Amino acid sequence: MTHDSLSELTERVRQFAVARDWEQFHAPKNLAMGVSAEAGELAAEFQWLTGEESCAPDAERLARIRHEAADVLLYLVRLADRLDFDLVAAANAKIDLNGEKYPAEKVRGSATKYDLRT
User: Fold this and answer.
1) At 37, is the pLDDT very low, low, confident or very high (cuts 50, 70, 90)?
2) pTM
3) Are the beta carbons of 72 and 31 closer than 8 angstroms?
């Protein structure tokens, strides 16, 4: 059975935690720390690679990257579920905010942090 939507994934992760009596460990602070820990493990997969190498990982590294990225996503999904907010809506709102903060005509081609005051 595939679970293609975020709401289906949220329900699957919720039921996974309930079945194991893990909700007691899923305080938002714990889930946020889990996101951070898993993001560090994801970053470690890229440490010491060149930019070019990072675009074409071998099959073994790509499998590890997929697992770590999934761990980050699962913690985020669980965090949003516990705090009862729509993760997709939050992401869309943040993109809108970033669009205002970093107008394309002002920041195109630059990785420098843009300051609206300048």
Assistant:
1) very high
2) 0.88
3) no
Beta-strand ranges (E) seen in 1-118 are: none
What's the whole-number average pLDDT of the chain?
93
Measured distance CA(105)–CA(118) in Å, rounded:
14
Element (H, E) at 25: none
Domains of the chain: 6-84 (1.10.287.1080)
User: CB of 45 within 8 A of CB of 65?
Assistant: yes
pLDDT tens readout for residues 22-36: 999 999 999 999 999
Tokens of 10: 């949220």
Instruction: State the pLDDT confidence band at 115, using cuts at 50, 70 and 90.
Output: low
CB 29 within 8 A of CB 78: no
64 contacts: CB under 8 Å, gap ≥ 6: 45
Rounded to whole angstroms, the Cα distance separating 39 from 79 reads 15
The CA-based dihedral angle spanning residues 58, 53, 35, 84, taken in that order and rounded to the nearest 10 degrees: -90
